[in-house]
């Protein structure tokens, strides 16, 4: 074999990523690499939180090492009070989210499908939507006290706007040609809503549900922290008042993990509901 042939063969072997013995080197798919990178970043964060208190840069009285936080979390898992508080938080979150989704989808479909009604309510929606839910805390306490209903009031008010705005955007995005075609085939209001408007609005609806799920959890914990409604938020306030700093961080860690779980479940439901949509098919293909 000539020198040129050997050089060409070597270059070709290197270009295809061949391993020893001419066996092609295998590369992990991107979907498998991404979680590993995320775990590496999480491990780095845990290492920093463990080193900082010992280095003296941060007082351990205010930021305990990660090992103490994990130890406090382990003790919490064996405490029945923790599981009761977790159940109260999930109850307020789930009920508030369900109410807001049903009300937001129903109101959005009715308002969006009637142009006159949409123009009449547009200014009202734009006025009420930016009002922070925490501004309603005095009203909630005045009406219901430190009760589940106070938590539901804040959760529903915050999550409702996430859903209805997305539903209205989805109805607005309906192709006029498709709507006119449905009318020409003598489809009634229910037929056009089912076969034309709903398939177009569904991706927007699922986005609104995903956003509402996160917002509902935030407001549920906030209501427990400020109002004192039963749940993880109240446990955080009690631990902070008693000076149990590692327990405070352990409870905060639980709320963070709960938020991650809520987001993952919402994305899984979204992919399931939109398995026919181009965006989900493209994501699966990649």
- Biggest beta sheet summary: none
How many strands in all? 0
SS-based class: mainly alpha
Number of helices: 12
What percentage of amino acids are in beta strands? under 5%
Tell me about this structure.
- With 286 residues, the chain is mainly alpha-helical.
- It has helices spanning 3-15, 30-55, 66-77, 80-113, 115-128, 137-144, 148-172, 176-184, 189-226, 232-241, 245-273, 278-285.
- It is globular, with a radius of gyration of 26 Å.
- Residues 1-19 have low confidence and may be disordered.
Helix-strand blueprint:
Blueprint: H1 3-15, H2 30-55, H3 66-77, H4 80-113, H5 115-128, H6 137-144, H7 148-172, H8 176-184, H9 189-226, H10 232-241, H11 245-273, H12 278-285
Give a short overview.
With 286 residues, the chain is mainly α. The chain has 12 helices and no strands.
Give the key terms.
286 residues; single chain; 79% helix; disordered N terminus; globular; mainly alpha
